[in-house]
Amino acid sequence: MTKWNSKPVNEQTATGEDQLSMIPAWSVVLAIAVFVAFQYLFHGIMPHHRHELLPMRLLTGYFWGTTFASYVLLIGYISRDVKRRRMPAALWMLVVVVMPGGIGAVVYFLLRQPLLTPCPNCGAELAQDAHFCPQCQFQMAPACGKCFHGVQITDVYCRHCGHDLAEDQAPARLRVYSD
Ligand SMILES: [Zn+2]
Ligand SMILES: [Zn+2]
């Protein structure tokens, strides 16, 4: 039908499937290697004591293996996420890897730039909450024709100014949803 229908710009990056494809293969392989290495460390290398209980040893190995493997996956995710947000990749990878105990990752998630999506009309990079493309005026999301605040596609009146949204000359692709 329309561009809006074939490519829901605002949802395409929010799906779980899409998030999973953000984890590169190298980090999955590395995470498995890290997990196996921790099992080897706890059961093969570290000295066994008689008084130590086997379930405790199993649990400890499993816990640290999972923790570090998860962190490797997280670093893999960030390595892709940092690029699609047009942030300095090398700097952020350094921060995430070097800062201890996952603090680097926390800092990253606090400071990361909003996600950019290409304008379906002209391809300009837009923040995800953009209502209009600043380059070509393509309407990305429904907005009130009077106060220009964002509105829900199902709204009849603007929740900011009470304007009757039916009076607006909405683009055809947005009208499909409201009818
Ligand atoms: Zn545009
Ligand atoms: Zn309004």
Description:
By secondary structure, the chain is mainly alpha-helical. It has a domain at 3-114. It is 49% helix and 3% strand. The protein has seven helices and two strands, in the order H-H-H-H-H-H-E-E-H. The protein has helices at residues 3-6, 16-20, 25-45, 54-84, 89-98, 103-111, 172-178; strands at 116-118, 125-127. The protein has a two-stranded antiparallel ribbon. Strand 1 and strand 2 form a beta hairpin. The two termini are 15 Å apart. Mean pLDDT is 82; it is low at 1-14. Keywords: Membrane, Transmembrane, Transmembrane helix. Residues 119-162 form the DZANK-type domain.
Tags for this model:
179 residues, mainly alpha, 7 helices, 2 strands, 49% helix, 3% strand, binds zinc ion, transmembrane helix
